[in-house]
């Protein structure tokens, strides 16, 4: 029988964060290649309606589409993803409640951003970005996993002496 433990949840969270890190690194590499070479065609450009470069090159591909051209925060969104998933993978190693609560808030916000970007992708850009959707899936999985971790951390512990009686 499969028993969910904090250690297993930590491992699954770390795995999901590593997948998110890989997707963000790929996206960042593609963005750098596109800036260097306009004719570069990444593997994630499957068709005109399924194009990651269309999403990355759009005004929403940098600074979340919110920060202006001259803002320090007007960086590729994938760079923020690299920082976010690195931080979440590191915090996932802790079994303390405070880092878990912080992760819940951060991952919840990342899911709100995923909804924002999914809306833009579908209704504004009329595009399907495989890399983007991959990060949305990672964010949903991270949310489910951090909720499971908090549930385990907040569960009352049974005294081993009482359990034996």
Automatic annotation (TrEMBL):
Domain Vitamin K epoxide reductase as annotated: residue spans: 6-150
The EC number(s) this enzyme carries: 1.17.4.4
Subcellular location: Endoplasmic reticulum membrane
Secretion signal span: none
One Pfam family cited in the UniProt record for this chain: VKOR
Gene Ontology biological process: vitamin K metabolic process
Key words, A-Z: Disulfide bond, Endoplasmic reticulum, Membrane, Oxidoreductase, Quinone, Redox-active center, Transmembrane, Transmembrane helix
The UniProt record lists the keyword Transmembrane helix: yes
Similarity comment text for this entry: Belongs to the VKOR family.
Name of the protein described by the UniProt record: vitamin-K-epoxide reductase (warfarin-sensitive)
Organism (species): Phyllotreta striolata
Lineage: Eukaryota, Metazoa, Ecdysozoa, Arthropoda, Hexapoda
């Amino acid at each position: 029988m499969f028993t969910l433990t904090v250690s297993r949840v930590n491992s699954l969270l770390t795995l999901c964060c590593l997948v998110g890190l890989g997707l963000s690194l790929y996206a960042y590499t593609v963005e750098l290649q596109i800036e260097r070479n306009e004719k570069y065609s990444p593997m994630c450009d499957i068709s005109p309606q399924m194009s990651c470069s269309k999403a990355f090159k759009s005004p929403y591909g940098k600074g979340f589409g919110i920060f202006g051209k001259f803002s320090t925060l007007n960086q590729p969104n994938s760079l923020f993803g690299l920082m976010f998933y690195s931080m979440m993978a590191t915090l996932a190693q802790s079994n303390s409640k405070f880092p878990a609560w912080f992760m819940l808030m951060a991952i919840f916000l990342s899911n709100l951003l995923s909804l924002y970007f999914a809306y833009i992708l579908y209704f504004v850009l009329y595009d399907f970005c495989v890399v983007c959707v991959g990060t949305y899936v990672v964010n949903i999985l991270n949310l489910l996993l951090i909720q499971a971790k908090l549930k385990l951390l907040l569960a009352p512990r049974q005294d081993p002496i009482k359990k034996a009686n």
